[in-house]
Fold these 3 entries.
Entry 1:
Amino acid sequence: MTLGIYLHIPFCFQKCNYCDFYSLGCSRSVPQEYIDALRREIARWKQKESWRRPATVYFGGGTPSLLNARQLEALLDALEPLPDAEITLEANPGTADAAKLRDFRTAGANRLSVGVQSASDASLHRLGRIHTAAESRTMLQNAAAAGFENISGDVMLALPEYSVKELYDTLELLCGCGVKHISSYLLKIEPGTPFGKSPPQGLPDEDAAADFYLACVEECAARGFAQYEISNFALPGYESRHNLCYWNCQDYLGIGPAAHSCIGSRRFCYPADTAAFIAGAQPVPDGECTAEDFILLQLRLAKGLSLAELQGRWGVSFSAAQQAFLRRCEKNGLAALDGDRIRLTPRGLLVQNSILCNLV
Ligand code: SF4
């Protein structure tokens, strides 16, 4: 079985107003002692029987583009990924110029995931992003010029005062710069964030947010991007191999504070504390991956859930009541049952949580 590695880079230029990811704001670079701690943990994992050379490596954050190319290279040297590995670096506009992107490419990154979010400067400002839409365009163009052929762009939907025009402008910005993959997320107001403490004016209601999501699905399809997961769209052959590893319940190892792992169905995570990680904190158990998790993750994917695989991997099959519920979902246009497979339709994906609650 393949192994995917996630390295968490918990440093950001400043905290965005909506963000509840674990990261430290006010950072302009990544301290060398943090790189040393990641290398220490990589060396420790390489001693274990479960270690294989990774098929995918994902530098996530935080803001991994605050790394310098020497640090990226040192981490990849330690990891020794397979020759054809997918090596993704998350990058935020305003944190890497053309030369740095060239150096990242030379150091071994072959996929860039750019936090574009919106083509509206007013929205970016409200979100607390440090960049403008023009800077996003520049980063995408510089990345292509640096030799990144596989570029993804992040889009946030249902922002305050949002409109279909803002959505279309954002998709046009991405497609005009030749991205091959789009990730789109509805803005969620998380407790403890600046938006959680003081929600912004002009937030779309749930129905309007759902319409923006469906408009995004439709527009991505019109532009040739197939929806392969609830929030992800790709031109043929450009699906994220690393993220598919999560959704297909393959082994992944996350290293860094707050990073989660699942190896052989056993989950564990490092404490969300950078100083403790540098000082040597070890991951703690975080439960087991179950058949329910598998159902949940597979139903996020456009290919859906295979009943034979559910039976083969987990020894589980749906009861008569569950099958009747799924048939009702199909009748209501929320699911499609096709022999061995169950898929949720775009409308079903929107209400995925309540379908899963009823199902499992
Ligand atoms: S750049 Fe990303 S990780 Fe950092 S604060 Fe903003 S949303 Fe959070």
Entry 2:
Amino acid sequence: MTAPESSRLAPLAGAGIDRAADERAEPGLLDHIRADPAARVLVVVGDTAPLSAPDTLHWVAPSAVPDGGEWAFLGRGPDGVALLLAAFSEADDRAFDAPAGWGSLRVIGGGLGEHDATAFVTALSLGRWLVDGRFCPACGSLLMLADAGWSRRCPACGRQHFPRTDPAVIVAIRSARDPDLLLLGSNAMWGANRFSCFAGFAEAGESLEATVRREIWEESGIRVASVQYRGSQAWPYPRSLMVGFLATAVDDEAARPDGEEIVAVRWFTRAEIGAALAGDGDVVLPGRASIAHRLISDWHAGAA
Ligand SMILES: [Zn+2]
């Protein structure tokens, strides 16, 4: 597989902060940084974070964060400043100052700078696990935080637990017959005229390449001749790693929806995709924060 150049990384896929993973095992690191007024904290509540402007996250000093929450060391910013996460569940009281309101990752993620985008997707991915995974899946005991928030240990059975990531493929299908045609599907849970790439989780024991072929066949009736890796993106809804591919159909005419998950499939011309990307017409494509948008726009630009 050939990875796209770094300048064409998918949205939210960059390395905008230094994770400083080598610091995590330092005893007392989290308490030490929480006492540092120079540290900066990103508060997340559910899938939202506070904003200081429509495209900028609102970072605060540790003392400004309400009591409670689940804390972790996110890493270090470009100036070496320590970055922390304080994660709250959606049920918690959101009595916290957000100068420009609250933004969800899926809505604002595509418009953030690399630093904030990386921090937000990392904070959500880690924060959801910290909020939801307090008990040992093996024995039910209350777990103890370790590695500055990046793992938990069970005091009863000794197991160590890490944030779980579920790999999923997301695929745009191009025509072998006509280079100006791209196949997209419409999900049963979406509104009419909303189309995107085909996607599905890797099953136990399955390679990503096999997942692409199975999902495309199940959802669209298409066999694919080639599968090209195009990049990946963490997508914490709730804990996916979306692995993007561009596949080439063997037989365009075989396309048909599965009628359950996918209710419509449609070959779009390059001009139709261009119009939809520009917001013209009725067709709605995925938002800029998603790797699906990147797969489609790359194909449209002839970069794929
Ligand atoms: Zn246990």
Entry 3:
Amino acid sequence: MISSKLQQGINDQITAELWSSQLYLQMSYYLKHQGWDGYSHWLRCHAEEERKHATMMADYMTDRGGMVKLQMIDVAPTGWGSVLEVYEHALSHEKMVSKMINTIVLHAIEEQDFATENFFRKFVDEQVEEEALFGGIVDKLRKAGDSGVFFLDAELATRK
Ligand SMILES: [Fe+2]
Ligand SMILES: [Fe+2]
């Protein structure tokens, strides 16, 4: 059985993953509205990934006898400017999520709940990948001139 403290932490994390999904879907439609089909498509795919993270965590909690409690998801913002601003926001959001995951691992270790530690270590690795992914796009956008921004839009349209 999973402790009530960890259940609370995991429920908060599930909410954060669903919030990430909501945020990236909103970003996707914001960019689509501006005609950036590739950047939009890429974020739409990523919104699906975040939803998967939420259900993986919820399934894990259920397997351990914990109770999943879905919480309120805030309204996502819409007031971005450039494509770069959108992706910078996404990158800083991923960094915040990484901190939350690290805190769950820390609490799991403190409680000697090694199953939860193991399960969430996969997400520690996942966050390294995601920060590198978003960071790579931010980096390219900062270096790109006008034509580079169009080129990257076409490249990101190919994400499966
Ligand atoms: Fe995630
Ligand atoms: Fe993420």
